[in-house]
Amino acid sequence: MLGTTILITNSVVPLMGGNRGDKACVIQGMLFMSGINTLIQTLIGSRLPVVMGPSYVYLIPIMSIISSNNTGNYDSEHQRFFHNIRTIQGYLIVSFFVSIILVFNKAWGNFTKAL
């Protein structure tokens, strides 16, 4: 999990315009959220002894967000980094709510039964 965190951060943060300090903040945020997800999984979820970590699934959408935001006029690379990170966070929040709606409406279960 730690290796995945470092690998994803090292590949994405420089493309967003971040420096070493920004990379450290992203790593800290990922580790913190991995810990929270692990606690939720072991206390509320299926109670399996797993360690939750970041996923490679989001790399393709994140890369497309970064490439679409590179054309903007920014005063500095740091400002471009903050714009990119906020856009990515908004994308993750929206995708979370879409998945919650699909699960609670039992649409996902019906879809998987149909396959």
TrEMBL record:
Q: In terms of domain of life, where is this protein from?
A: Eukaryota
Instruction: Output the InterPro entries linked to this UniProt entry.
Output: NCS2
Tell me which family the UniProt entry assigns to this protein.
Belongs to the nucleobase:cation symporter-2 (NCS2) (TC 2.A.40) family.
Q: Which UniProt keywords apply?
A: Membrane, Transmembrane, Transmembrane helix
Q: What is its main location?
A: membrane
How is the protein disposed in the membrane?
Multi-pass membrane protein
| PANTHER family given in the database record | XANTHINE-URACIL / VITAMIN C PERMEASE FAMILY MEMBER
Q: Where in the cell is it found?
A: Membrane
Question: What name has this protein been given in UniProt?
Answer: Nucleobase-ascorbate transporter 3-like
Q: Which residues cross the membrane?
A: 50-67, 88-108
